[in-house]
Design a protein that fits this description.
Layout: H1 32-50, H2 58-73, H3 79-92, H4 97-113
């Protein structure tokens, strides 16, 4: 076998590099549940922006959305913090039905993952 020939048996894993000068890369595609959370967070941002004039404290809701997003993107999200933040946001959304609806969907999606 020459220097450029490789025989490989059963291999499993998430990143491989074979051969002289090879560099392995790992790409972790988001799960469908993670993708749904991303889409719901984007929808939440749009709703917050669209209804900022109708909300008693739009800045606080936006800050809470930042914290929720940070937690959900972390390696070990604080589930209790996410639940508390989302519940508080529902209360802060008042009578803006479309915002409440997005928040409730986000709560369900997060609960399904945790």
């Amino acid at each position: 076998m020459s220097d450029d020939e490789y025989r490989i048996g059963n291999v499993s894993g998430t990143g491989f590099a074979i051969g002289r000068g090879a560099v392995g890369q790992q790409f972790n595609a988001p799960t469908p549940q993670q993708q749904e959370l991303k889409e719901l967070l984007a929808e939440l941002r749009r709703e917050l922006e669209a209804h900022s004039g109708e909300l008693e404290d739009a800045d606080a809701l936006s800050g809470s959305a930042d914290l929720v997003e940070r937690e959900l993107e972390s390696d070990k999200p604080n589930v209790g913090a996410v639940r508390t933040l989302l519940s508080g946001m529902v209360a802060g959304a008042g009578e803006v039905a479309s915002l409440v609806e997005v928040l409730l969907r986000l709560q369900r999606a997060a609960a399904a993952i945790f």
